[in-house]
Amino acid sequence: MTAHANSARSLHTVLGSGPAGTALARELVRRGHAVRLVDRKGEGPAIEGAERYAADVSTVEGALEAVAGAAVVYHCVNVGYHLQVEVMPRIQDALLGAAEASGARLVVLDTLYPYGETGGAVMTEDTPWKATTRKGRMRAELDEKYLAAHREGRVRVSLGRSADFVGPGVLNSTLGATTFPGALTGGTVLGLGDIDLPHSYTSIQDVAAGLATLGEHPEGDGRVWHLPTAPAVSTRDIHAMIEKRVGRPLDVVVLAELRPFGPFDEQFIAEYAEMFYQHTEPQIVDSSAFEQVFGATPAPLTETVDATVTWYGEWLAQQ
């Protein structure tokens, strides 16, 4: 454990190096924190000011190693869609045990899944958890366990819920690699469900900034927060924003019903089918509680779309 000897208590450890974890590590560095970014391999592009570290946090030993010396731990780990119901609870058990043993605060990146179908009602932190899907019930059970650990005084925990991600570095999202490459190259752009319904998308930068803010504010512990999310517009409205940036109409293929298409293979479709309600009713996130308490303002979607088009242009040039 010598690698952690000089990390003191100001260390912020980010678990998971996907788009959210990577953006969060950069945001924490920007805010002046010592940062460790953990994934199973400890590889990837260098992030100035952050230490990359390899650990498997689904094991007790790996979780203890990953959080050693950290004042705040951010759980941004995700796994393949078909593995979530099996693996995410195992990761939770390991992390809660490690955080309790080390005394670190825990900030969890969460989803809207526990709410289940809302009939289009605006989602606030007071919306009932009525999930009926396997993944929704699993997420609700995890969240209840996190909040119980906090209530029992075992681990200080806060949960930051996000809508669908959009932004630089975001590939596996309904507004990711199924949208921007086709928009930039004249290829197919995929839309899911009813693209005229309002649908909230959370900028990956707002995800990072929101989680970092929770990490800096222990008074936010013990509850769920909706991370700053721009007002909902329809996916078709976002397509129109993209069309302005790329200077051509998009060739949109809408899947009114879920079926294998493009990057969505049969295994993914089989797992995602139960969540397809998210594209057949309005998905509207209200993040005003977070915005008022912490003085945050979500990035305008126009700015997020600009940044994302720019990033994908650079990404495509390297493929």
Provide a descriptive summary of the structure in words:
By secondary structure, this protein is of the alpha/beta class. It has two domains: 9-163 and 202-226, Rossmann fold (3-Layer(aba) Sandwich); 165-201 and 231-285 and 299-318, UDP-galactose 4-epimerase, domain 1. It contains ten helices and 13 strands. A seven-stranded parallel sheet has the order 3-2-1-4-5-6-11, with helices on both faces. Strand 5, helix 4 and strand 6 form a beta-alpha-beta unit. Residues 16-220 form the NAD-dependent epimerase/dehydratase domain. It comes from Streptomyces plumbiresistens.
> What is the CATH T-level topology of the largest domain?
Rossmann fold
Distance between the termini: 38 Å
Strand fraction band? 15-25%
Strand adjacency order, main sheet: 3-2-1-4-5-6-11
- Main β-sheet: number of strands, strand sense, barrel status? 7 strands, parallel
Average pLDDT reading: 95
The number of strands is 13
The CATH superfamily title of the largest domain:
NAD(P)-binding Rossmann-like Domain
Order of helices and strands: EHEEHEHEHEEHEEEHEEHEHHH
What ranges have pLDDT less than 50 throughout 5 or more consecutive residues? 1-9
- CATH class assignment of the largest domain: Alpha Beta
Query: What class do helices, strands and sheet pairing give?
Result: alpha/beta
The helix tally amounts to 10
Global geometry: globular
The name of the CATH architecture of the largest domain is: 3-Layer(aba) Sandwich
How many structural domains in the coordinates? 2
Helix proportion: 25-40%
What value does the Rg take, in angstroms? 19 Å
